[in-house]
Each structure stands twice: as C-alpha cells, then as structure tokens.
Amino acid sequence: MTKKKILLAEDNSTLSLLLKFRLEKEGYELLIAKDGNEAISFIISENPDLILTDIMMPFVSGLEVISHLRLKLNLDTPVIVFSSAGQEEMVLKAFNLGANDFMAKPFSPNELVIRVKRLLM
Amino acid sequence: MINSQYSIDYFNELPLIIKVVWVFSFVLFLTIILLTIYLKIFRSYLRKKDQEKVKFKTEYEGLLVTYLYSSSDPRKLNPEQEAIILQLQNSLKSASERKIIISVLYNLMNEVSGEMSESIKTFYYKTGLIDYALAKLKNKNWYTIAKGIGELTRFNIVEAHDHISKFIKHPRNEVRNATQLYLVNLFRFNGLHFLDDLNVPLSEWVQVQLLETLQKFDDQQICNIQPWLKSTNNTVILFALKLAQIYNQFEVKDSLIELLSHSNKEIRVKAIDVLSHLYGIEAKEILKTNFNELSLEEQISFFGLLEKLVVPSDEPFVEKHLFHKNFEIQLLALKILKSINVDKFKWLSNSAKTNYNSEMIEYVNNI
Fold this sequence. Notes:
The complex is a heterodimer of chains A (about 120) and B (about 375). Chain A has helices at about 15-25, 35-45, 60-70, 90-95, 110-120, and strands spanning about 5-10, 30-35, 50-55, 80-85, 100-105. Chain A has about 120 residues and is α/β, with parallel strands linked by helices. Chain A has a 5-stranded parallel β-sheet with strand order 2-1-3-4-5, sandwiched between helices. The mean pLDDT of chain A is about 90. In chain B, helix 6 (about 130-135) runs antiparallel to helix 7 and helix 15 packs antiparallel against helix 16. By secondary structure, chain B is mainly α. The termini of chain B are far apart. Chain B has helices at about 1-15, 15-70, 80-90, 95-110, 115-125, 130-135, 140-155, 160-165, 175-185, 205-215, 225-230, 235-245, 255-260, 265-280, 280-290, 295-310, 315-320, 325-340, 340-350, 360-365. Classes of the chains: A alpha/beta (about 120), B mainly alpha (about 375). The interface between A and B is medium-sized, with 17 and 21 residues.
C-alpha cells in the first residue's frame, strides 16, 4: 500500500522535524517546505494528499499557498492551517480561501494526528 | 634602480602640499587593502560560525526530537533519554552551544502544548539549563539578570519565584519589567500584587504587555483591583482603570466616581471613559451634573460619551453648549443635536448663517 503524502509548510525547523517524526510514525510520508514558495513547488510536483501550513512564512504566506491551491491549481486537497495567537482574522481569511481546519499554536501533536487522520479517512 | 632614484628625486622636488597628498593617498590605499583583507577574514569567520551554528542546531534538533519521542511519560526518563541528556550536558559548557540549545527548546516550547511541553520543561531541568539561568540572576550586570529572568519566564519556571521576586524594586527599569512579566506570566492575576507598593512609573508599553499576557489565559477570574485605584502611583491607577474597563469591574463604581476629582487630569479623563463604558446612562447623569467643574479635556471626553448615549431629554443640555468656547465641544454638540432633533438642527442651519460657523454646519449636515 502506498503511503499517503502530507506536505508540511512550516518555517520553524524544530517543529517541522518533530511533526515529521510523529506523522511518519503514523505511516505517512512527509514533505517539508521551509516557506510558501517551496510549498507551492511541492504541491505541483508531488500532489500531496493533505497540506499542513503555517500562516506566517517567509516569501509566500500560508494564505497565498491556499489561494494558489484553490484558485490557480483548482485542487481540493484538504488543508489544515496553523495560526498563532492574534491571527484570528487570518484564520477567517484562510477559511474563506478554502482551508478545511485550523489549529492554534501552541498545539498538541497528538491532536494534530487525530485531525490528519479524520481528513484523510 | 635608475627609475626608483628618479622617482625619489621627483618626490623630493615636489611642493610640500603635493607630498602630503601623496603620503595621505598611500596611507589610505594601504588602509583599504588591510581592511579588505580583514573583512575577507572576518566574513569567512562569520560564515564558518554560521555553518557551525546550523550544524549544531540540526544535531540538537534531532537529539531533542528523539528525546521527546523516547518516552510517553514526560516526568520519567528512560536510558535513551538519560544518554541524550548526558551528551548535551557536555555541550552546555560552551556558552554559544548553550545559546543554540535554548533557542531550539524555545522554538518548540512556543509551538507545542500538553505532554510535549511538559517534556521540554523536564529536559530543561535535567540538562541543568535551569542552573545556568539561575546563575544569571546572580550576575552583576543588569542585562544578564534581565536575560535570565526572561529565559525563566519563557520556560515557565515557577520554582524561580523567590529568586526573581526580589528584583521587583531593582533600580534598572528593564530588570523590573522582566520581573513584572515573569510574575504575571506565571501567576496570572495573583502576579499583579507587585502593584500594591509600586512607587515607580509603570510604562505604557509594560502595561500593554501585562494586559496582553493576562488576556491569553483561559481563567479570567480577576482579583480585587480596588487598592490599585486608590494607589499613590498614578500609572498604577491608570493601569487599574484599564483592568476595570477590560474586565467589567462594576463593583468599583465608588472608587471610579472618587477618581473624577483626582488631581491628575489623565486619570479623570480615563475615569470618565471607564464610567461611561461600565455604567452608561448612570455615569452620564453624574457627569452632566458636575459638567462645569470638569476640565476642558474631561468636558470633551464627556461629550464623546454623550454622543453615544444621548436621549431626547438631553436636548436642553446640548443646546446650552452649542456655542461653547471649544471647537470640539461645539462640533460634538451640533452632531448630537442633529441626531436627536433634526428639525432644530435645520432651523439652526438656516438661521445661523450670520452667527454660527457655517462650515461646521455644512460638515455636520453632510455626515
């Protein structure tokens, strides 16, 4: 059985590594993007089954990634957005652009795994 | 040889000013060459340092993630975790590596919650990083102390309370602020008791930081703010007024009314804002009665309140102040009149061409 691909767009390398470790343990294949530009390249080349993206990232933000995914590439890949405190407005924008779920930082990686499983069912 | 002799002779025959320019140009040229070489060495040193940092960061991130996933109980260490801690304890002896480990830990601490955050805290204790932070508190430099307090705040080290609380009256503002933020971050509203006997100003920036910290907690059960409203420190009163407004402290009404006669104008104006926010119409009536005793700023602030809470029965009061000496009050009174009695406003517009500011009337008419 082929592993489901998850794209993680996150500029915090420690968090990326932690989530990679956790999600790979659950049997997923993780693709790590350090910024929005890399995330878009991965979406085009790898066509992931799920996207986890931070809102604030260098070069291209998480919102722009979702916008590109939904409006330019016309893909309905599920998206979970990570937001920090004080980014409530951004979260609303993310939902308007087509995000499926969001998690406020700090979050529990175990909770993330449950949400990922739910979206990939 | 002949050429160089010719050059020396030529130089010796030159006028003094030209000689000076030549020497100066030579020195400048030499300096540029030396600085270029220095810059090149310095840049390669920095690049090497950066590469080392990235290498260490990647290594420590790997170790930390392995540590965090090695055990399901955040308080109990298994042999693999103990080995990682032992390995890191050696690296901690170097200040630069310690800094990298702390930044890696802090990067993660901000992003994850629950058991994982507990494990990070255990890691902080077991590696001995806490001892380095506590040692910073004994340093004679204020900035090292402030850095130590900041670090202990970020890692939520409650046990450092006794070590840190003694800095609440430190002569340096930065140390005091770090201490205040530590207390509020860790002990929430109970941490605000430093306000009881604070006799130095609490800057606006610190007030904002404290309020922001308090708002991120789920438990919004505020303590009694009454003593702070009666403080001799004006900045403490202003901060307490902000708390009263944000946390809807209806029980401090009497203290708020007392503040209307405070010697500080800023406090009086803020008290009007808070009273209008909490009690609306009731506050309006109190202030309307004492209107003439208020300062100009307070009167403007009161008209701001009246604009929001005006009722038709306020018309005579508003009308009385249509020709107030202050422009802002005049404008507000006109706007209020328009909102409660358009006919009277129109009548005023038509009859006032000679004795009222026509531009103001036109402006209010177009709103």
